[in-house]
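Re: the multi-chain job from yesterday

Posting the exact lines I submitted so nobody has to dig through the queue logs.
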Amino acid sequence: MRLRALGLLGVIAGVCLLLLTLQMRGRAAGASEALAVLTTPVQTVLARINRATLGVWGTYRDWKNVRTENRRLRDEAQRLRVEALRVTETASENDRLRRLLALKQSLPLETMAGEIIAREWGGWVRSLTINRGRGDSVGRLTAVIAPDGLVGRIVDVRTGSSIVQVLTDPASTVGAHVVRTRTPGIVEGEPRGTLRFKYMARDGGNLQIGDMVVTSGLGGLFPGGIPIGRVRSIDDRGAALFSYAQLSPAVDFARIDEVLLLTGSGAARDVAASFKGDG
Amino acid sequence: MRTFLAIAVLGGGADVAPDIPLIVVVLLALRRGPEFGCGAGFVAGLLQDAATGGLLGVQALTKAVVGFAIGVVGTRLRVSQPLVQVPGLVVLSVLEGLARYALLQLFHFPAPFGELMTYVILPQALYNGFLGAALVLALAWAETLKERTS
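And the result, structure tokens for all chains:
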């Protein structure tokens, strides 16, 4: 057995050496060609498999890369959307605070800024809760304004917060007059969340839609000249003692976030000049 | 063929390819003895020579010798341990490379020995060692599975 194996090895070694020698003398081209007949088809098949494998692998890698890229881009888009929202919100807040600060600086009264922390919009009561309370020396019936006009008055003072009765509250009444005609009257809140201006019929004959209504300053609670709203429609009741005008509020109560509390004295002063562009 | 196998095994990222026919010859020689190992080595080597366009007979001879030698001494070796397989295949690959180099020197092969050893023979030997051991383990696992199912 071992001898046979050695013999085989000897034969193989002899064949190999013979092949090598013949090749070196340039006489074994035929053997090479004959073997190539066997190896070339195999190599061709292997090359095709190679290409196919590489193709599949390449496609898989591309797919994987695209998937990763897609996930990364989606995350980035999400992050940028949030960032854009934050920037917009910050810009909006900045704008609001700038307007509030401008108003605060232009007012000839002592004021205190407050932030709205809750809203009651049920219909029975329309109020805002602000983050200023007893600790901030806020008093009951303090006037609350925004850069666009009058918001309401403080009706309840708590330890760290206060409740503001909004103008549209059904129980709210404010002494007011029409800027253009000086027609005096009372602005009342309505259950449906609107405002109406109640005035003596004999005084309001020439009232027009679009007229600005501001606080009158009478009664000592609100300074005069704070915008309340514009006349939207007029309800002329003929021979009745009082006529009514529907007002569009100057302040969008649903959207305000910051307010000013008129904490100082001097409620009777006219502050119309601080609300530029109104009237 | 080697390129294909290297790509298939390493995903195309390898500079050196394993000598799979050598590993197959070793496995066959261990199982079937020196005669079969010698014959298988000759055929595999000859086909490799023809496929690569080198001198016909170089790898045929070295692989035939390897197949024969492993067939002879295989029964005395404890080749079931990976700790034996890996260094064993590494040493065997280095020896085969050296034999091939020596044979080629007879025919005035121009490559310097140091570079050939550093960049071809040793990396390929390491590659063969680990790949061969993995193949042996895979085969053993497959056989165990086959025995359990039958």
